[in-house]
Amino acid sequence: MSGTSASLVPPVPSYGPYREDCPWCGSRRLRARRRGDGPRQGAPHRSPVERCSDCRHVFRNPPLTPGPPEHPLVRAGVRIGHVLAARAMVRRCPEPESWLDVGTGDADFPRAARAYFPYTSFDGLDPTPRVLRARVVERVEEAFVGRLTDHHVVARVRERYDVVSLFQYLERVPDPRAELRAALGALRPGGHLLVDVADPRRVLPGHPVGLSAELVAQGCTLLTGDRGRRVIARKGASAA
Ligand SMILES: [Zn+2]
């Protein structure tokens, strides 16, 4: 480690409690797929990966808990991901009027995306009050504190947005399938969903019960491949 300053060591991520059931289908038939990668460069102290024997969903257990990626290297990577995602979306949906960023934190994504979408109204949702600060500094126009599946949120966002984005959100919630359906519920018919995952293996199992298959089952059209870290889908005219 000589030559590496302490400030460049990524922070130890915080994990929630170990869960006994599959976050995707609720089955309790979980099997360890492989050990965590260990204290490797950029990936210290990973929790083990487990696989559901029923739906083949693969996820880290215990799961990551929500929190800001504080480390400069992590934040730089997140910023690059935001720019790439905005560029990917502008090709498919160049002029959305309204956009909800889910799990927005300090609204770093709306801030980055504004360069590509100067006329779009961005709203933000986050489980923490950070999103309220983001509204004060005008990074978002409307702020929701909570989860997409919370009743007070569902009623206010129903079929309201041209785009809904979820950055590394599904892998941090206890019921990703319900959150995904709620995200579709917040889209207008024909609206676009953007899902970005840090590690596709966490929520994108190579199996029909994965994220992409769920989107198709909900009447969406996939506009990207189903194995990458970013999925863009268009909601059908009569989808959920
Ligand atoms: Zn399962």
Q: What brief labels describe this structure?
A:
Rossmann fold; disordered N terminus; alpha/beta; 7 helices; 10 strands; 240 residues; binds zinc ion; 3-stranded antiparallel β-sheet
Bound molecules: zinc ion
**Computed CA radius of gyration, to the nearest angstrom:** 18 Å
SS class: alpha/beta
How are the strands of the biggest sheet laid out side by side?
6-5-4-7-8-10-9
Based on the structure given, which CATH architecture of the domain at 72-234 is correct? 3-Layer(aba) Sandwich
- Outline: globular
> How many separate helices?
7
- Stretches where pLDDT falls below 50 for ≥5 residues? 1-6, 36-44, 202-208
Question: Looking at the chains present, what oligomeric state does this protein adopt?
Answer: single chain
Under CATH, the topology of the domain at 72-234 can be stated as Rossmann fold
- Number of DSSP-assigned strands: 10
Helix content: 25-40%
Profile the largest sheet: 7 strands, mixed
- The separation of the N and C termini measures 52 Å
What is the string of helix and strand elements?
EEEHEHEHEHEHEHHEE
Strand residue percentage: 15-25%
Q: Average pLDDT across residues? A: 82
TL;DR of this structure?
With 240 residues, the protein is an alpha/beta fold. It has a domain at 72-234: Rossmann fold (3-Layer(aba) Sandwich), CATH 3.40.50. The chain is built from seven helices and ten strands.
